Amino acid sequence: MLDLCVTIKGVSFLLQTGLGFLGNTLVLLAYTQVVCSECRLQPVDIILCHLAFVDLILLLTRCVPQTMTVFGLRDLLNDPGCKVVIYTYRIARALSVCITCMLSVFQAVTIAPAGGPCLSRLKARLPRLIVPTIAGLWLFNMAVCFAAPLFSIAPRNGTVPAFTLNLGFCHVDFRDRLSYKINGVIVSTRDFVFVGLMLWSSGYILLLLHRHSRQVRSIRRSSQGGGAETRAANTVITLVVLYVVFFGIDNIIWIYMLTVDNVSPVVADMKIFFSSCYACLSPFFIISSNKKVKSKLVCVAADQEPPSVDTQDSNDKM
């Protein structure tokens, strides 16, 4: 029975890692093709591209070592390696929620009706603020996550001490209850603030789409740009709903972990799995709903197809 549970857990992490790696790599490949052909990316494309990048980092720093550990590989990392991997993962996880929030806010401002000179100036400046905002989010989360490497160590032989998160490939030893609680409160507060802003902006998008449904349909019939904005808004709503579902499950488990001194490895594995589901599934929603990404992937696939027999025969005759 134990072997069956280990096998199911290992296969689950392996599938999650493989699908997530494939999906995010395809999104990045598609946007590479866009840059090569158009020499620039639209603001929303920059955000989606960066979301795929940080989700890929998240999967590589959490799911890959977790999968290797489940299948019996031990002593993967030493203390410095654990500090680097855990710190990188914490930053990538934080950026995933921040950039999804940024995408929602950007789309809300983009489709908002003109309400005065301030909003008009903000809309005009918005594309130029994308890269500085992303850079600021990197710096902010690097500062917030600074404590992660201080508590990260390679697994030790023997029992896992209290107030320690046993990740299998690494331990996060907070040493005492106060450090354990403070870390949990800081991380949870940051996440809830960004998720709250994400929900507010997404609710505003839904309100606009509902209130102006007739106008939106007329815009879609008369202008390609309006249809593109509506499709982008629907993509944002889908990504936000997807994130909130897995965020809720992840934080229910996290709150439970904060209430106990010794966390079961099974509970830690569940948290890792659900916290990585968004990074695994979101690129496929981007591919299915983004015509630009889909068209570039179709072009790449068509270029890789071998020539047909009829084409080869005609070339031989020539």
UniProtKB/TrEMBL annotation:
Main localization (coarse): membrane
Recorded GO MF terms: pheromone receptor activity
Positions of transmembrane segments: 12-32, 129-151, 192-211, 232-258, 270-287
GO cellular component: plasma membrane
InterPro entries on file: GPCR_Rhodpsn_7TM (IPR017452), Vmron_rcpt_1 (IPR004072)
One BP term from GO: response to pheromone
Domain of life: Eukaryota
Membrane topology of the entry: Multi-pass membrane protein
Domain G-protein coupled receptors family 1 profile positions: 23-286
Subcellular compartments: Cell membrane
Keywords, ordered alphabetically: Cell membrane, G-protein coupled receptor, Membrane, Pheromone response, Receptor, Transducer, Transmembrane, Transmembrane helix
Family named by the database record: Belongs to the G-protein coupled receptor 1 family.
Protein name per UniProt: Vomeronasal type-1 receptor
Biological source species: Salvelinus namaycush
